[in-house]
Each structure stands twice: as C-alpha cells, then as structure tokens.
Write a structure and sequence with these properties.
The complex is a heterodimer of chains A (229) and B (422). By secondary structure, chain A is mainly α. In chain A, 72% of the residues lie in helices and 0% in strands. In chain B, the strands form two sheets. In chain B, strands 2-1-3-4 form a four-stranded parallel beta sheet. A four-stranded parallel beta sheet of chain B has the order 6-5-7-8. Chain B contains 21 helices and eight strands. The chains are: A mainly alpha (229), B alpha/beta (422).
Amino acid sequence: MTLLEFARGPGLQWSITIFIVGVLWRLLGIFLLRTKKDLSEPRNPATWKGLRLIALRSWPRREFLGGTAFGEVMGYAFHIGFLLTLFFYVPHVLFFADVSRGLIGTDLQGLTGFAWPTLPNGIVTLLAAISIAALVAVLIHRIVNPVKRLISNFDDYFSWFVTVTPLVTGLAAFAHFAGWPYERLLAYHLLSVELLLVWFPFGKLMHAFTIFAARGATGLIFERRGASL
Amino acid sequence: MPDAERVERAMKSFVKDFGRTAAIYMESCIHCGMCAEACHFYEVTQDPKYTPIWKLEPFKQAYKREYGPFAVVYRALNLKPKVTVERLQQWQQLIYDSCTVCGRCSLMCPMGIDIAALVSQARHGMYAAGLIPHELWAVTERARLEGSPLGATPKVFKDRLEWLADDHEVEIPVDKGDADVLCTMSSIEIMKYPDSVVATARIMNHLGVNWTFRLDGYEATNFGLLAGNSAAQKQLTLKLIEAAVSCRAKTVILPECGHAYTALRWMGANMYGEPLPFKVQHIAEFLAEQARAGRLKLKKLDKSVTFHDPCQVVRRGGAIEAPREVLKALGVELREMYPTRGTNWCCGGGGGVVANHRADELRYKTFKIKMEQIEDTGAEMPVTTCANCRQTFDDGQAHFKWDVKMHSLLELVADHLVEDDA
C-alpha cells in the first residue's frame, strides 16, 4: 500500500471515524450534564431573544474594539480564508461530491439540480496564502504578547499546527513544490487533513461547535435578567 | 486542615455545582486573551496574571482532569496534573483580591463565556478549602452568626431606627404583620449611611405605601455570595424571604446595594426552591416605576450629574435605564461617562474587594480609572445607586484627597420630594 493509498483509504476512514465519535463524545459529555431550572422571575419573558448573542458577539462592542482589533481582524482573515479554500476550491468540491456519492449515492447536483459553486484557482491560492499569513501573525502574537503567552498551552500551539499544515501542504501540492511527485504531495496534504480531523475533538478546535452553545447559554441567562449583552 | 484535604474540598465544592452551562464555558475558551482588555485590574497594571480567564486556570485544570468528557484520558496519562494546595494559595489573590465579579470580561469574551460566573463558582471551592482572605471570612461568619456583617444586629437596627425616627421626625414602621412592601437595607447603609434609612422611610411615607421594616429580615447584604459560602448565602437569603412571607409582602424593595440585588432578585428563588411569592425590586426600579406612574413628585435638581453604573445592578442585573429615569424625574442634566451603562468601568470595590484591605493598594490603582471618567464628564456631581460603590468612592476620595463626593440616588430623591401643602 502506497502512502497515498493509505491516506485515501484507511487513514481517511479512521480519521473521520475518530472525528465523528470524538465530537459526539465531547458534545454528549457536556450536554448530558444536568442543568437547574432558573426559578427567578424573568425581566424579559421572551428569553429566547437572548440567542441573538450568537450573532452579536461576532464583533466586539465599540468600547472594546481598540485593544482587540488585531485579534479580530487576523481571526476573521484566517477563518474566512480557510473556509473558502475548504469549500470552494474545485478539487475539494469534486472530492466532497465523490464522498457524497459514495455515502448516499448522489451529490448536491443530483439532489437539487444546482451545482456547488467554486472559486477560480487563483483566488483560492490567494485566500490560502492570506490565511497562512494571518495564522503566522497570530502565532507570533501568541508568542510575543505577554497575556497570550501566559495563558497558552500545548493545545493552542498544536491546534495552530494542525490548522496551518493542510493549508501549507495544499498550496505545495497545487504548486508542485520542489518538483516532488504530485502523489507524494497529495498524500502529505491528505494526511495533514487527517491529523486535523483526529485532533479536532480533543482540543480547542471544538470551539467550532461550542461557540454557539456558549454564546447561546449566556444570551439566554442575560436576556432573562435584561442584562447587557 | 491538611493540605490534601484542602485541595479535595476545593475541588469537590467546585465540581459539585457543575452543570451544563459551566461545562460549556470550560470547554469553549480559545485562549484569545481578549478578556484582559476588559478587566480594570489588567488595565491599570498591564500584568498578564490579571487576565480574567487566567484567574480560573487551576479550576480549568481540575475540570479537565476530574470532570470533563475526556477526564479519564487526562487522568490516565496525567496530561493535566493534580491541582496542588500551593497553586490554589497562589490563586487566592487572583480570585478574591483582583476580581470584583463585575462581569465586564463576560461582555468582552468572543466565545460568550460568562467568566464572572465561573469566578463566583471558583470561590465556592476556595471557601470550602479555607483559602479565603481572613477579613472576608470574618465578616461572612459575623453575618451568619449575628445576622449582619458589620454588627447591625436586630437590636442595633431597632435602636438605630428609633434614633433616626426621633432625630429626623419621620415615621418608620417596624415589624408590621401585614404590609404591601417590605423594605430592606444594607449594613453599609445602616452603619455608615443612615441617611439612606431615613430617605427610604421618607419616600415610602410620601408615596403612602403600606410598608415596613422587619427585624427578622432587614439585612440585604449577602457576604455568603461574595465569599463563596453557599450555605451562608442561602441562610441570609431565606431570612429575607421568610420575613416577606410573614408580613404577606407583595413587593420586597432591595436597597442601594449591587450584590444584594443579585442575591435576591436573580438567585433568591433558586435558593428558596420555588418562585418567590412576591416581586423583588431594586430601590431605583421602584422609584422609576413610581416616577413613571406620576406618583413621585420631585423638585428639580438644577445640576449636571454623571451616573456611575453599579455592575450588579446595571451590567449584570439589567436595571439599566431605571436609575436614569429617576435622574430624569429629578430634572438633572445627565452627562454620561465613557464608556457607560453595560460597559462602564467598575468602581473596583465590588465582589468583596473593598472589605479585603490587603487589596487596597491594587484597588486604588483601579480607582483612578473612575476618577478620570468622572472628571472627563465635567459634571458637577456623580451619583450612584449602590452603597458599596459609594463606600469605595468615599475611600478613594479620602485616599487621593479628591474633591469629588459620590451621591446616593435614593438620598437625592428623598431630599427633593415635593411635600404636600397639607
């Protein structure tokens, strides 16, 4: 079995399995915990309106913007770059369609008649480069900023590593880095994605799910009180 | 207490209250460090140890090791070492001296984590381990045993009421068996600002309310909440609830005290185990309601005023506009600070910090933020609606020989009542 065959076969299957089981385990471990009913008389009976905090907290209040602008801008840059690259790069879309056909016998076009949109390769390359640059900037900031340096741990650095690696290996494969065989570069790319999937449930990457729960929970509590969101 | 027992008690007590919401918070921090920018202790020192989420570090460690979904893995591979008593001792200063539980960081956190709520929970653990500043422990014990942290026992309160009624020629009903409104006071007001007691009586009498003080439930201060002693918190809360039930009160009015509002308005029913059979209002909410209904007749206060938002009443309590409505009824020119309302800076004395004198030096540093904020407004007088904030301001004023005096909204209203001609 070649490295690419491993990456496309058991490597992919196992990493996806660990990802799904791990994410479910962690989410169930949180959501199956008891929660006490709040018996206080709500100021605002429509407490569900507090769920707007999920959207509101996506950008800091004007009063807080000064000290956090770097983190916000860089955060948005690498998240947007990463997600657009992941979901709109032609080979990725073909890959997801292939996986979809393997799992449910059809793809989005077969289901809806609409093709998944894609971005031109040049744009995706630029987005991936921006994403890498932003990730490097946040890493440097994490190392030089006294607050971030103090509160950082292995999870922060390893999660950074597994996030940036697929971008770097993807760009290397696209650019046929150093004239290496494409199969080898593709295998490295797939393995780096699999590493991300395996680490995902155990570290801070889980915030992709918990962010909605944390903001929502706080929103509901604060809205009940009429407190500042 | 042996060290091992201290740690075990701390962790058991911390983990005991753990529910879904706290677990979501513990699982969500991405270590972005933005909360530091919201904390007044970090703002004035630029010391990273004051980063709000760092104040919870041993508790995060304990959560991951003992309670989280992967706790078994963390323990088996010792990925998160056991929390030691030395580590908890180091964190005592961060949990009690440099956090006023003001919740400004909770507004900042991009993940939406209510960091202040977690600090309160961490205090439960610290209290159980006996790792609490002595002064805070002492006043909590005094409150638990005598009914008041500052010695305002029922006898002292009764004597004070008689003296105040006599001195100020105001009727102060005590221990009525049937009253629509039960008024409560904070110990700071009883002992340090007795004019607030008189002001309460004057306003209630002016409004013609059937009201009373009760000697079996008058003290709204709840050091159990501040210290992290849940049993004491419950005991003090139940006293008020039982007094209100005894006199069949429809409304309980809480005094100008921030954490008293949190303790009864937002936590009272949960301590009681069922919804409260009466309405709970902060005095500013009550006054705003009366002003809105046209019942509160006030003379104009012809001054420019700035309002200091008490964190537990405004940011975390939700009574954001009520004090401003009262100021409007007084006819003042309101000059808002920047930032204001939910994002206003804390006075630095909340969360029991003003009662913990080893924290004084640090607290004075944070107080400079308030001085600057107030001076920037150019207002003639600052006003607030929390006796604890007021005490912090008075102390800061004396320390810095600052020529600005904090005023009580309640007392301003009482001083500007339009008395009936009859």
